[in-house]
UniProtKB/TrEMBL annotation:
Keyword entries, A-Z: Riboflavin biosynthesis, Transferase
Gene Ontology molecular function, alphabetical: 6,7-dimethyl-8-ribityllumazine synthase activity
Binding, (2S)-2-hydroxy-3-oxobutyl phosphate: E71, T72, R112
Species for this entry: Alteriqipengyuania abyssalis
One Pfam family hit: DMRL_synthase
UniProt key word Transferase: yes
Name of this chain's protein: 6,7-dimethyl-8-ribityllumazine synthase
InterPro entries per UniProt: LS, LS/RS, LS/RS_sf
Domain of life assignment: Bacteria
Function: Catalyzes the formation of 6,7-dimethyl-8-ribityllumazine by condensation of 5-amino-6-(D-ribitylamino)uracil with 3,4-dihydroxy-2-butanone 4-phosphate. This is the penultimate step in the biosynthesis of riboflavin.
Entry keyword Zinc: no
Length: 140
């Protein structure tokens, strides 16, 4: 049993709830424990994971959020920078699954968030579990 922290950006509450449902089910089905930490937006997710990782309380993390394109360049900043910073943390050896969906509209988001359809939350949780397994395999 490993301890996972789902870090969710509560920007689109209903979509997030579906992503979290999928992530939690995947973690619990695999025999792991899941807590949830809420941050305002996707840009806060990497910082929150870095702080939580430093505490040593968690073995792995699942980033959950929804970024929907608006009218300005802000979409590129939020989508790109959150992914870039999560990747940087992953390269530091932190097991993270990235379940921040970056979409053109709400319909695309619904299909991806729904556990019965594309289940991107569950997919991200499984990726975090896979990375933790690899980290444990190569731990000295
Ligand atoms: N537009 C979206 C954001 N924007 C907010 C930023 O993530 C951040 O909270 C703000 O710039 C303060 O630092 N966040 C999302 O998660 N989704 C969006 O569509
Ligand atoms: C992430 C976004 O693009 C969006 O939430 C911001 O919209 P806008 O570019 O219209 O300010």
């Amino acid at each position: 049993m490993a301890r996972f922290l789902i870090v969710e950006a509560r920007f689109y509450a209903e979509l997030n709830d579906k992503l979290i449902e999928g992530a939690r089910a995947a973690l619990e089905d695999a025999g792991h424990q899941a807590d949830v930490l809420t941050v305002p937006g996707a840009l806060e997710i990497p910082g929150a994971i870095a702080l939580a990782a430093e505490s040593g309380q968690y073995d792995g993390f699942v980033a959950i959020g929804v970024v929907i394109r608006g009218e300005t360049y802000h979409f590129e900043i939020v989508a790109g920078e959150s992914a870039r910073a999560i990747m940087a943390l992953t390269m530091d050896g932190i097991a993270i699954g990235n379940g921040i969906i970056t979409v053109e509209n709400e319909i695309q988001a619904q299909v991806r968030a729904d556990p019965a359809q594309k289940n991107k939350g569950g997919e991200a949780a499984k990726a975090a579990i896979a990375l933790l397994d690899i980290a444990q395999r190569f731990a000295h």
